[in-house]
Amino acid sequence: MIFIFLYFLTWFRVVPETQELITKMDLQCIGAAHEEKTAYPKGIELWLPYISQSRDVSYKIYDVEPTSHINNIKTIVIPIAPFISYYSYDVESSGFQCGGSGITHIGLDNELKTTKVLSQWII
Predict the structure, then answer these.
(1) CA triplet 64, 36, 65: central angle to 5 degrees?
(2) φ, ψ of residue 30 in degrees (nearest 5)
(3) Is 66 helix (H, G, I), strand (E, B) or coil?
(4) What are phi and psi of 47, to 5 degrees?
(5) Could you give the CA distance from residue 105 to residue 94 in angstroms, rounded to a whole number?
(6) Which residues contact 111 (CB under 8 A, 6 or more apart)?
(7) What is the gyration radius of the CA atoms in the chain, in angstroms?
(8) DSSP H or E segment with residue 2
(9) pLDDT tens-place string over residues 1-45
């Protein structure tokens, strides 16, 4: 019974915060967009274990006219023990792809900590 309670507590505490972090992985993988036409997931959607989003953005390289791109973002967050979850993300945009996976946990200071298990890859 206590394990079920801790599992749900982990879900409500760890999953949304982890999802919020990894849905924005395109910022680290590809960089900030010149213009974002689609908002990141928020609210109750972040409590889902799996998020798949196609974001409409435009990138401006140097002084060239901004070009439109679709960033496909897929994330998974699954609690595996009390206050510990596994995460995975995959970002793809115009043939460029990166992703990774790892573990998140709540530290003694009540802050979310992340540990990479698999590094990002770029193709």
Answers:
(1) 10
(2) -110, -25
(3) coil
(4) -80, -10
(5) 33
(6) none
(7) 16
(8) helix 2-22
(9) 888 888 888 899 999 999 999 998 888 888 788 888 888 999 999
